[in-house]
Specification:
CATH superfamily: STAS domain
Number of domains: 1
Radius of gyration: 13 Å
Distance between the termini: 40 Å
Number of strands: 5
Largest sheet: 5 strands, mixed
Helix content: 40-55%
Low-confidence stretches: none
């Protein structure tokens, strides 16, 4: 079983969440806990960096869906940055590219918040 890590970094009013390893039913609660903490702190401008995420399951995708409405209701958003080709294909196949902005570089996603 692959190691999974969630790391958070706050940059001004944007929070960046780094996911590493496999995001599946066993590891999704850790990601969910991080997003819940951000919502509780009213830090709703979120970038999720997937550059080191090697796998995402439907349970992992469900975490994104479980928070997006609440975050958008609070005038925030979740932007996705640097997914691998494999992870991007999963997002694309399931229509997440329509629901979420996906960026090649983390800096692009972060700077998008300063324009909104």
């Amino acid at each position: 079983m692959s190691q999974f890590h969630v790391k958070r970094k706050d940059v001004n009013n944007v929070s960046i969440v780094y996911l590493k390893g496999y995001l599946d039913a066993h590891t999704a609660p850790e990601f969910e806990k991080t997003l819940q903490e951000l919502v509780d702190e009213n830090r709703v401008k979120i970038v999720v960096n997937l550059s080191e995420l090697s796998y995402i399951s439907s349970a992992g995708l469900g975490v994104f869906m479980g928070f997006i409405e609440d975050i958008r209701n609070k005038k925030g958003d979740i932007k996705i940055a640097e997914p691998s080709e494999k992870v991007f294909r999963v997002f694309d196949l399931l229509g997440f590219t329509v629901l979420y902005e996906i960026f090649h570089k983390e800096e692009e996603a972060v700077s998008k918040y300063s324009k909104s």
